[in-house]
Amino acid sequence: MEIIQQLISQDKYGLKCPYVLNPKYITIHNTGNNASAQNEINYMKKNLSNTSFHIAVDDKVAILGIPLNRNAWHAGDGSKGIGNRESIGIEICYSTDYSSDRHSKAFYNAIEVTKQLMIEFNIPIENVRQHYDWSKKNCPHRIRKEGTWKKFLSLCCEAESIETHEQKLKRIRVEKEGLYIREKVNGEIIGFIPENSFQDFDLIMFVKGIQSDGFQHCKVQGSWIYNGLSYENKIGDIQFDSRVYSIEESE
Ligand SMILES: [Zn+2]
């Protein structure tokens, strides 16, 4: 699913996300309240506590509040803890709502988001953790109470859903001129992306390196492309498996 970016202002970085993050783990939380993802993000952005998290997911949307290349204070394991320093924190909303299916929908949406991040950052399933694992807090309380953690992990591994995500990743967007896609070793042109279009493409767009905002993406000769998660771009070839592809401006 789409992860909407609503990042905190940079003057809050020192409070909410002071350190560089190289995500190696994903930490799952329940919010412990009845608020939407939008309200969770709004509250996190405006309050003066250092408590923070990266993504809030509810029954409808996933919103990114802290850049994925900055740490967040969500795991309760201190300033040098692995949870706080090496994991992406995901809050699953509506965890105290027992009268609707909003938490259930948020649960499944969080699985989609987790799968996307596992692929994006090459995070193995054994590194998807509960808040509890870092600091023994009873969180995610609803998942722990209902015994759905194993289900969460097994659905994160489900190949069918990963394929669905790969299909999303294959969709790339060109905002300016059309672009040719050329296989770099043999020089063969394998695709063309028209101007101002989205196009499905038989590659997964993994770009070398993680860029400054934590996303993988690139800017090629003035045109922007992204892999479904990112909006800003940097120059670079596109790598898929061990093959490198270049993107060229059309004449
Ligand atoms: Zn938690």
Throw out a few tags for this protein.
hydrolase; Amidase/PGRP_sf; competence; 2 domains; Amidase_domain; globular; 251 residues; Lysozyme-like; 24% strand; alpha/beta; binds zinc ion; 6-stranded mixed beta sheet; N-acetylmuramoyl-L-alanine amidase activity; 5-stranded antiparallel beta sheet
Tell me what you see in this structure.
The protein is α/β, with parallel strands linked by helices. The protein has two domains: 3-166, Peptidoglycan recognition protein-like (Lysozyme-like); 170-249, no CATH class. The chain is built from eight helices and 15 strands. The chain has helices spanning 13-16, 37-46, 82-86, 102-121, 131-135, 141-146, 149-156, 159-169; strands at residues 3-5, 25-30, 55-57, 62-64, 87-92, 128-130, 171-174, 179-183, 189-193, 197-200, 206-207, 218-220, 223-225, 238-240, 243-249. The strands form four sheets. It has a six-stranded mixed sheet. The radius of gyration is 19 Å and the shape is globular. 39% of the residues are buried. The model is unreliable at 160-178 and 196-236 (pLDDT under 50). The protein binds zinc ion (ZN). Residues 29, 131, 137, 139 line the site of zinc ion. This is N-acetylmuramoyl-L-alanine amidase. Residues 13-152 form the N-acetylmuramoyl-L-alanine amidase domain. Belongs to the N-acetylmuramoyl-L-alanine amidase 2 family. Its EC number is 3.5.1.28. One of its GO terms (biological process) is peptidoglycan catabolic process.
